[in-house]
Design goal:
single chain; alpha/beta; 3 domains; 9-stranded mixed β-sheet; two-stranded parallel sheet; elongated
Length: about 325
């Protein structure tokens, strides 16, 4: 496991200056015309450098106000910086400030965009649940992607987006075509729906699919859409279970898997969730992961080792428009 390197909070830099000065925090607070509590929050990274405090630091000869505001801007603009929250309300406030919008696929979208977007919605949905305790810290790592530190211990969370590879390639090509104002010049293409088990299509095939107005698919029969969805979810769960066994993954007492369900076509939710619950109860998925979460557009479904399924609504600010 390796922790992602973040830009330092300006308070860390200020703390070095305070320690080097030989002055007490009370003396520094008096020089800056602020109370000791405000200074302590600043030094511990819980409060930002403001234009007023930046000017006060410049006035006592500790660099320039522009320097301090630049450090704050670099820190603020990094979407994956750690989160420290004392209460559910503080966590949701930080998430609202932190949340990012994902660019369209193929238009400079990065893993950071996706992971931040998914993590914000998971944390917002669970903020007031019994699964989280306060104070907490959320940090971005690698293998697993997130670490939540609670008073009772740590939770490792691995994130994955569930979408067929060729569907993602088609979506990216569609967005590229729109940017170039390329119109659809193919009316119908004979193709069945895209499945996770399909052989990889060639780039000319992907471009043709992205230009067509309709696919000449056989009619969906019964629960075929739900079964395709189930195949996709199990594929990504099994893939993560396999990778979790590798040495580079750090195992925690509690380990979660968060699936961002971006599957197309969308199944009937209740039918699909029931199918996944039955399938997981028959498998050994729970050996590495204590819980699997499936994030859909308006809710996150929690699958636990005891096979209880819980639906967590995603709060309003994080719902799709």
């Amino acid at each position: 496991m390796s922790e992602i390197q973040y830009p330092a909070h300006p308070g860390e830099c200020l703390r070095d200056s305070v320690e080097a000065s030989g002055l007490t925090q009370n003396e520094i607070a008096a020089k800056l015309n602020m109370d000791r509590g405000s200074l302590r929050r600043l030094l511990t990274g819980r409060s930002p450098i403001t234009p007023k405090s930046a000017r006060a630091l410049e006035a006592i000869g500790w660099s320039t106000a522009e320097h301090w505001m630049r450090l704050q801007a670099v820190f603020d603009n990094h979407p994956m910086k750690p989160i420290d929250a004392e209460t559910p309300e503080e966590l949701k406030r930080i998430l609202r400030e932190r949340d990012v919008q994902m660019p369209p696929r193929g238009k400079n979208r990065t893993n950071n965009h996706t992971e931040t977007w998914v993590a914000c919605r998971l944390l917002a949905a669970l903020a007031e649940s019994s699964l989280l305790q306060y104070p907490l810290r959320v940090a971005h790592f690698d293998r697993p992607d997130l670490i939540i530190t609670l008073p009772s211990g740590q939770i490792g969370i691995e994130l994955v987006e569930a979408i067929a590879t060729d569907q993602a390639r088609v979506d990216a090509q569609i967005n590229f075509n729109r940017a170039d104002n390329e119109s659809s010049d193919v009316e119908v293409i004979p193709i069945s729906r895209i499945r996770v088990s399909d052989a990889r299509r060639s780039q000319p095939e992907i471009k043709a699919l992205a230009r067509c107005k309709a696919w000449n698919e056989p009619p969906f029969m019964g629960d075929s859409i739900e079964r395709d969805w189930l195949e996709g979810m199990l594929h990504f769960i099994e893939k993560k279970v396999e990778r979790f066994s590798h040495e580079e993954f750090t195992k925690y007492p509690i380990n979660w898997l968060q699936i961002h369900d971006n599957w197309s076509p969308r199944p009937y939710e209740n039918i699909a969730i029931d199918m996944l619950e039955r399938k997981l109860s028959e498998s050994e998925w729970q050996k590495p992961f204590n819980k699997v979460f499936v994030q859909r557009s308006h809710s996150i479904w929690e699958f636990a080792k005891d096979f209880q399924v819980v639906k967590h609504p995603i709060p309003q600010p994080w719902l799709p428009e």
